[in-house]
Amino acid sequence: MTFLGCETIYGTDGEYSTPYMTRLWFGRLRLHIFHRGDADPNPHDHPWDFWTFPLTSYVEEFTLPILESDRDHAELPMVALKMGWATKRRLVRAFRIHHRNARYLHRVLGRFSGEWWHDWPGRVRGAPPLPCFDGRKIITIVWTGRPSRKWGFFRYRDGTWCWTPWREYIFGGGKHAPCEPPQYDPDKNSAGCYAAAIEAKRLRGDAHYPEPKERAPDPETERQLKELKRALDRKLREAGNG
C-alpha cells in the first residue's frame, strides 16, 4: 500500500457485487466511508491495533470469550452464545475515540437509526434493548498501529470455532467450508486459540486446564533485558550526578 491513496472495496451483498467501503489514507491516518454494513456472516479481526473516531454513530456485533463477556460487558445484550463464545451488540457513538486491539472480533451492522428494539426475539427479562440500524453511510476517522499479524474471520461450523485467513475465506471457499478439529497440545501450554482450548476441554470432559509448565528462558531476550537494565542504571546515575 502506498503512503497516500484512495480506493473503493467491493463485496458481495446477496447476488450482486456492491460497494462496501471507500477508504482514503495518508500514512496510518485513514478516512473510512462504509456504504453498507458487513455482509459476511462471521466476525473478522485486524492486522493492527487501531483507534477509531466515528463521525456517525453505528451499530456493531462483537464476539469474545464468555468469561470476558461476563466480566467486562455484562451490561450489553447478548444475541448469541456458542461453545464458550458470546456475541453481543452495541452502539458505537460518534465523536468519541474508541480503541480496538488487533484481535478484536466484530461485524459492522449499519448506521444507528436512533431507535431501540425492546422486544427482540430471545430477550430475557431485564436485558437492555438492542440498538437499531439502517442502510445509510457510516464515516469514521481511523488511526492504525503498525501491522503485527495476519487477519481473518472467526467461524462457527458444526460445533467448532476456527479462524480462517481472509484470502482463503473470501476467495478460497473458506466462508462455507467446515472447520478442522482443533489441535491442543498441553505440553506446549498453548491451544493455538481460546476456542481450541474450550473445545479440547469439552472433549476431555474435565473442568480444569493442564498445569502450566516453565518455559526455557530465551537467551536473546535475557541479553536485551540486561542491556536495558544497564542503560536505565546509567541514566539514573547521570540524573543523580546532574
General description of the model:
The protein is of the alpha+beta class and 242 residues long. It is 19% helix and 38% strand. It has helices at residues 66-72, 166-171, 194-204, 219-241, and strands spanning 4-13, 16-26, 29-34, 50-54, 58-65, 78-82, 85-92, 98-100, 105-117, 130-134, 138-144, 152-157, 160-165. The strands form 3 sheets. The protein has a 6-stranded antiparallel β-sheet, with no helix packed on it. A 5-stranded antiparallel β-sheet has the order 6-7-5-9-10. Strand 6 and strand 7 (85-92) form a beta hairpin. The longest helix is centred in the last third of the chain and has 23 residues, at 219-241. It is globular. Mean pLDDT is 83; it is low at 186-192.
Structural class: alpha+beta
Largest sheet: 6 strands, antiparallel
Query: What strand line-up does the widest sheet have?
Result: 1-2-3-11-4-8
Order of helices and strands: EEEEEHEEEEEEEEHHH
Q: Proportion of β residues? A: 35-45%
Overall residue-averaged pLDDT value: 83
Unreliable stretches, pLDDT < 50, 5 or more residues?
Answer: 186-192
Helix content class: 10-25%
| Overall outline | globular
Number of helices: 4
Counting DSSP E segments of at least 2 residues, the number of strands comes to 13
Alpha-carbon distance between the two ends: 47 Å
